[in-house]
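2024-03-11 09:14:02 DEBUG pipeline.ingest accepted 1 chain
2024-03-11 09:14:02 DEBUG pipeline.ingest length=177
2024-03-11 09:14:03 DEBUG pipeline.predict start
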Amino acid sequence: MAKFVYLGIIVICVVIISFCGYYFMGGFDPIEVQEVENLSFNIAGKPYKGKYHKSDSLRKIQEEIGELILKDQVNGNYAEVSYVNTGITEEEVDLFVGTIFFENEIQIPGAFKVREYAARKFLAVKLNMHYAVRPSEQEVQAILYTYAREKGYKLEDYFINITFKNNSLEVYVPLKD
C-alpha cells in the first residue's frame, strides 16, 4: 500500500513540474493575430524546392545562412519564405531560405539572390515562446487562414517566417489587394 502512495506522490510531482516547465517556456502564452500595414522585407538567400526532411541541399543552405548570421557577417535574422499551392506534393516544400536584413546596403555573397516582399497589409503572429512548446508551422498557418476567413480577407500564396537570435519567431502573410 505504501508503494502506491509514494508512486502517487511521484506522479503528482512530475505533473506539477511539467506544468511549471511548460508555463515558464511560454506554453500558455496566447497566440494573437495582428494586422500590420505597409511592410517591406528584403531577404538575401537561395531558393529550394524538394523534400524537407533528410535533404542535404536544404541543410547546407540553412547552415550557410546560419553561419553568416552567427559570425555577424550579415546584420540580419534567419528567414524562410514558404510558398503554398505551387503544385508540389505533400512531402515537398517550396522555400526561399535566407537572411532578412535591415540595412540599406549589405555585403551579400555572390551566390545569394535578393528578393523583396512588400504589401500594403500583412497578418502577423509573434511567438515569444520556446521552440519546444511553440506551435508547428502548419498550426500557425491554420490560425492565420482562420482569422483571414473570419475577416473576409484573401491571403497571398506565401508565408514569411523570421527567426530571431533569441529564438522568437514572427510569421507574416500578405493580404491580396
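2024-03-11 09:14:41 DEBUG pipeline.report The CA atoms of residues 44 and 168 lie 20 Å apart.
2024-03-11 09:14:41 DEBUG pipeline.predict end
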